[in-house]
Amino acid sequence: MANNGREYEQFVGLLHQALLNAETLTAQRNIEVQRNKKILDSCGVEREFDIYWEYELAGITYKTVIECKDYNSKITLEKLDALIGKVRDIPDLKAVFATQKGYQSGAISKAQHNKIDLLVVREQNDSDWQDVDGSPFIKEVHSNVTIRMPANITNICPLLDAGWAKDKMGIDVGSEFSISGLNNEIFIDNDDNGDTYSLHQLAGKLAPIASSEYGEFKKEERFSSGWIRGPDFRYKIKGYDVTYSLSEPHTEKIVIDFSKELVGVIEYLQKGTKKTIFRNGIIKEKLLPVKR
């Protein structure tokens, strides 16, 4: 994230909108996180706040503002004083401060005395992928996926039943004949075991015996009675010879990087917890490591 105040405000607003959308009580109220909200204080002075949202619950309106400072150093006491001055004359306003690098001790004491929540809102770092005791979480999953294409049937030669061919078709077994149709339209019925499959399904069955086998192959299938049939034909057969080819398998390395799904992190310093917000709407809450 660039060191830009406007971009940081947008980042903070995005994370809090995700939190509000995930909360059971607030999700149904369609709360909109607003930026650069202007509010009149009790003295008639217009005050502008970086982030603002409100919602009503049990007849009471809850209003929250967040002051965002994208600094490369810790927030000073003076910055907290400025926020306190802005909200002093606006009743029933919950004030929150958000930054990236943390707060000086004086600012922390001032915030506690004035009930201002201090947040560190940032992008992820290595600490977000380990438990409070240092145990690592799974950040990436590496796997090798081997893709095998089904066999490519280049030729199939049905063995006509000689008696049936002579009786029904008036041809000798040695006579030439042709069949046509798509591989999912031509079926083979094996009467011996009641098995029925299309040429498309047959291609899936013609898998290599060993992983290293690929190239051109021939298979002979025989049975006492069966049929080959299509959209406009049906012939009685005693089996078939099939010629097919098997392509060399392709292995591809796949890396699943969970860190790409983590949008940002909010640390709640007074509570000692942090929330990690993911793109799919999942929110995870963990304890912050104890500083020694």
Automatic annotation (TrEMBL):
<keyword id="KW-0540">Nuclease</keyword>
<keyword id="KW-0255">Endonuclease</keyword>
<feature type="domain" description="Restriction endonuclease type IV Mrr">
    <location>
        <begin position="49"/>
        <end position="119"/>
    </location>
</feature>
<dbReference type="GO" id="GO:0016787">
    <property type="term" value="F:hydrolase activity"/>
</dbReference>
<dbReference type="InterPro" id="IPR011335">
    <property type="entry name" value="Restrct_endonuc-II-like"/>
</dbReference>
<dbReference type="GO" id="GO:0004519">
    <property type="term" value="F:endonuclease activity"/>
</dbReference>
<dbReference type="Pfam" id="PF04471">
    <property type="entry name" value="Mrr_cat"/>
</dbReference>
<dbReference type="InterPro" id="IPR007560">
    <property type="entry name" value="Restrct_endonuc_IV_Mrr"/>
</dbReference>
<keyword id="KW-0378">Hydrolase</keyword>
<protein>
    <submittedName>
        <fullName>Restriction endonuclease</fullName>
        <ecNumber>3.1.21.-</ecNumber>
    </submittedName>
</protein>
